[in-house]
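Explain this fold:

***
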Amino acid sequence: MALLNFRRKDASAPTTTSPEVEALLKDYSIEVMPRTAEKVEDFRDLLPAETRVYIAHIEGTPIEDMVATAKRLNEGGFKVMPHFPARIIKDKATLADWISRYQGEADVKQALLLAGGVASPHGDFSDSMQLLETGLFDQAGFERLHVAGHPEGNRDIDSDGSTANVDAALKWKNDFQTRTDAKMALATQFAFDADPIIKWADDLRDAGITLPVHIGIAGPAKLQTLIKFAIACGVGPSLKVLQKRAMDVTKLLLPYEPTDVINALAAHKAANPEFNITHVHFFPLGGIKTNATWAQDNGGASAVPANAD
């Protein structure tokens, strides 16, 4: 499919983007919510055709709004991946209804399955593994199922600060992929420091986890905005990167950009071709347009082939 109304950089403008960064940002994905998507007149002006767009399902969002957003994005030429948060899905009948609506009205073939950010389940499900075990996604012919990853752990899952439960869940999900025909990957929480991300990814490989990693990266935003979201989302030690920046008055009022972490990950991947981080997934905390423009200006291109991880 040809690119649509995607704004291109002036070919005569100088660029300092490295081939390594361009390679890492190729086929990046991005996340939206229905209420933020409503503010975008035409996504084709911001994103290349076939960009994978996740649709976050926040508690209280009507399924009708989710499906309408999915339909709009699909009709715009994008690969749509809505969230299925286990803890806000009442029961198997509700899950089946959501799947039917997404497929019938928006031709959705991909999904991100996760526990969800609510403390207590609204019904029968509490984690993504239970959603997988229903068999409904397989029966509906979904082509791709992504699950959550946590490079710095998750206090909601492991309240003692360990990674025991997270690690056990990853092994289960990896085993699920090997015993089924599911095409799966890990879409992770965002972090701000490349070193713990690299160590986590390497530890996964050493533990026999073969799921490709789509690493979560926070897009450009005001520093105060990022710190607020990072605390709310339980970001771990890499939060210190932002806190250190906040102590520097010369940088306090400047917008944060993910340049350093992207450059470090890109350099590591170039030096280690077997590195299991295969894609970047952006959380546009400073706005979709701001993030999309940054990605483009830094060499990002997105056109996901049918067999991509």
Summary: Residues 19-297 form a domain with the TIM Barrel fold (CATH 3.20.20.220). Residues 1-14 have pLDDT under 50 and may be disordered. Residues 164-179 form the longest helix (16 residues).
